[in-house]
Amino acid sequence: MSLSPSVSAPAHSPTQAELLDFARRTAADSALIASLPLDPEGRTWVRLDGPGASEAWLIGWPPGTGTGWHDHADSVGAFVTASGALKENALAARLPSDGWKTLELSEGVDRERRLTAGQGRSFGPHHVHEVLNEATEEYAVSVHAYYPPLPRIRRYSRTGQVLRLEQVERPEDWQ
């Protein structure tokens, strides 16, 4: 299912700022946000038409759900919380893009953000993070946009300061 909010597409590759602006405007569309079916067992998502040739998603987060540690490979991105609140744990360090399975992280690379309705952020390529709805009763809904469309998502496990590459997903795994 693909939904098209009223957005004019730039004639060039969208920047992080343009992706964030799209996510903010889309998150403010209360009818679109309310149209997302929510599942008490797991996250739900609907693909949206993003600006330019970007990929965008409307995602519903039941209480207590999250993404686990991951990155979006070479894509830049942005996301905005439309309702509820999300927590982002991120690494403030540029990691090698390929050729490793386990890394020991330096102290002080962890960053934490709490994003309530209307708040969001953009990020560059190889941004490693996890997004969580830590609420015990309230759903969260968010809008995400990526350019270029996601070629892969790398999933990681983390124990203390050790980050381990666990899986590489391709678009056919989540579409």
Report on the structure:
The protein is mainly beta. It has two helices and 13 strands.
Quick recap:
By secondary structure, the protein is mainly beta. 10% of the residues lie in helices and 42% in strands. The protein starts with a strand and ends in a 6-residue tail after the last strand.
Any low-confidence stretches, pLDDT <50, length ≥5? 4-10
**Number of E-state strands:** 13
Structural class: mainly beta
Output the number of helix runs: 2
Tags for this entry?
about 180 residues, mainly beta, Jelly Rolls, six-stranded mixed sheet, 2 helices
What's the topology here?
Elements: E1 2-3, H1 16-27, H2 30-35, E2 44-49, E3 55-61, E4 69-71, E5 76-83, E6 85-91, E7 102-104, E8 110-116, E9 120-123, E10 129-132, E11 140-147, E12 153-159, E13 162-169
Parallel strand pairs: 1-2
Antiparallel strand pairs: 2-3, 3-11, 4-12, 5-9, 5-11, 6-8, 6-10, 7-13, 12-13
